[in-house]
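Known limitations

Structure tokens in this collection are predictions and should be treated as such. Users comparing against experimental data should check residue numbering before alignment. To illustrate the layout, the record for Large ribosomal subunit protein uL23 is reproduced below. The input appears on top and the generated tokens appear beneath it.
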Amino acid sequence: MNSLYNVIIRPIISERSYDLMEQGKYTFEVAKDAPKQEIRQAVEKLFNVHVVKVNTMNVRGKEKRVRYQSGMTRSWKKAVVTLAEGEQIEIFATQQAPAEQ
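Generated tokens:
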């Protein structure tokens, strides 16, 4: 079993993830080989919350070009974690949504 900090790599901060937070859903980048059960345990232990559901998806890398050099961005795994009713992760709760311009 991986360390908790090796399972959850970083939170995903975007407009869509902020909209999902209002529904009690939090988005993380996770290890590519981490199963849903391991993601659930890591979130519950790190943030002291109860996880109801874990949805995962593999994000494919995009093809990019810089002048004549062609390459790919990295591929990674995303997890959307649904928490129990009325619970929230404090780290996200203290941050404000990105300001609109």
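For this record: The chain has one domain: 4-85. The chain has a mean pLDDT of 90. Please report discrepancies through the issue tracker.
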